Amino acid sequence: MAKKLLIVDDKLELRQLLRSYLTEEGFEVFTAGNGQEALFAARDHKPDLIILDLMMPEMSGFEFLRTYRREAETPVIVLTARLEENDKVVGLELGADDYVTKPFSMRELTARIRAVLRRMDKAVAAPETLRRGQIELDRTSRMVLVNGKPVDLTPSEFEILAAFMETPGKVFSRLELLERIQGDAYEGYERTIDVHIRNLRLKIEPDPANPHYIETVYGAGYRFAVRD
């Protein structure tokens, strides 16, 4: 069965171009012109992945993410203009999994889409429960418990935490973690990992300012502390 994509952008020409190209690539594609339309479309079609422009009229991509993340964990790739560095960070903080900078090549976007979908399929196909300290991660239900209480993670945050909990004590570089969540590591994008780590700490650490689980290894990356 073809994977379903939702393209959200206020530019009709771009929506039509992406729909035509990605349909040829074997996807089932739906479109929306703003965040409000996207909410209705996402609820109706239940896409496997959303491609989201951030700057749109009526309801922006930021507002869409704030609302939709309360309802579903569908992976989201945001589209940003080249100079909008802060938009990339805010988008990731709101729960986006990746971003592609405009102008972009269709091949790169398609590769990103397939990498995210492969990672999601792989996670579903590998049922397993991991327990480290007061954290429990269940691959089957994609649920994370901290001190017995459920914590909502984005797909990328879930995969990063799973990588850490599989091999506590191992130091992961930013590029290694990026490859884990995307399937391919693109230089220049590895700093997005810092945003995901910050979000993870806010959700799982007793004191995010003094991490108990996710440690920074300066000059190298991050590791999950080995704790009983």
Quick description:
The protein is an alpha/beta fold and 228 residues long. The chain contains eight helices and eleven strands. It has two domains: 4-122, 3-Layer(aba) Sandwich (Rossmann fold), CATH 3.40.50; 129-224, Winged helix-like DNA-binding domain superfamily/Winged helix DNA-binding domain (Arc Repressor Mutant, subunit A, Orthogonal Bundle), CATH 1.10.10.
Task: Please provide a written account of the structure.
With 228 residues, this protein is α/β, with parallel strands linked by helices. It folds into two domains: 4-122, Response regulator (Rossmann fold); 129-224, Arc Repressor Mutant, subunit A (Orthogonal Bundle), CATH 1.10.10. 41% of the residues lie in helices and 21% in strands. The protein is built from eight helices and eleven strands. The protein has helices at residues 12-24, 35-45, 61-68, 85-93, 106-124, 155-166, 174-182, 192-204; strands at residues 4-8, 28-32, 49-53, 76-81, 98-102, 129-132, 135-138, 143-146, 149-151, 214-217, 221-224. A five-stranded parallel sheet has the order 2-1-3-4-5, sandwiched between helices. Strands 6-7-8-9 form a four-stranded antiparallel sheet, covered by helices on one side. Strands 10-11 form a two-stranded antiparallel ribbon. Helix 2 (35-45) runs parallel beside helix 3 (61-68) and helix 6 packs across helix 8 (192-204). The radius of gyration is 17 Å and the shape is elongated. The mean pLDDT is 85.
